[in-house]
Amino acid sequence: MDSLARLTEIFTHFPGIGPRQAKRFTYYLLTRDSRTLSELARLIEKLKNLTHECLSCHRFFATEKGGKERCSICSDTARSEETLMVVEKDVDFENIERTKLYSGRYFILGGSIPVLDKEPEKRVRASALKKRVKDDIEKGALKEIILALAATAEGDHTERYLRELLNALIEPAQIKLSHLGRGLSTGTELEYSDAETIRNALKNRG
Ligand SMILES: [Zn+2]
Q1: Angle at 60 between CA 58 and CA 66, to 5 degrees
Q2: Which of 45, 85, 142, 171: disulfide with 146, CB 3.0–4.6 Å?
Q3: Residues, beta carbon < 5 Å, ion ligand 1
Q4: Which of helix, strand or coil describes residue 77?
Q5: With a threshold of 0.85, does the pTM exceed it?
């Protein structure tokens, strides 16, 4: 495979990108000057060193050399520890955070579980979530876990899995497990929801 074809193939593995878009990316890059391409290559090469996965919420955040282990939100004492919102991916977190409507904590699940999947624990951060919830319960502040998943069959399936996963932990501690209201219309991904939709989904959670 030549390098053009190989690069295009790599782009097809990006979320939501098909072969045609992947080709457009490759040809777009061919029209850029070499400075831009060098910068891009350098940023990609350093990506793993410039970012850190937060030990508490597992989101990726940019960090200085020898940076912190917890992100700005997890280390912000002004944020409420009563609610823990579970989202599928980093962009969902960013979208909710941008609305400034939620002041609790987060956990980034890292994906969702396809309906017929045989090994769900490999698709999402299941054991890390269990540990996080257990720690939060021991700290004594947690009151509610909000599942903020996509309003799709896969999102529903993921929710069922998480309810089962967490039940033994949260039931004795009387932690409420809610999900976003279906102001998010069916088929909607959180990533594409606007502030008004998120406001309603938060208000109508149950
Ligand atoms: Zn964090």
Answers
A1: 100
A2: 85
A3: 54, 56-57, 71, 74
A4: coil
A5: no
